[in-house]
# Entry
Amino acid sequence: MVHDLKIENIYLGELISGKKKAEIRVNDRKYAVGDILLFRRPKDNFQFKVTHIHEGLGMKENYVVLSVKRKSV
# Structure
């Protein structure tokens, strides 16, 4: 499944550079390993594949940590 999401430019830049490897989100979309996170900027789209999901231990209820890897386009 592809999730079209919003993100602040500073955080998107860190994902693109590889400095940031995970995204914390409310799990209102029922994320699953293999899903694609799509972030848009004017003239550019960036896709990241969910490689692991952490929930529960240490996380606020209904929040998840999505480990991601940038997809080549």
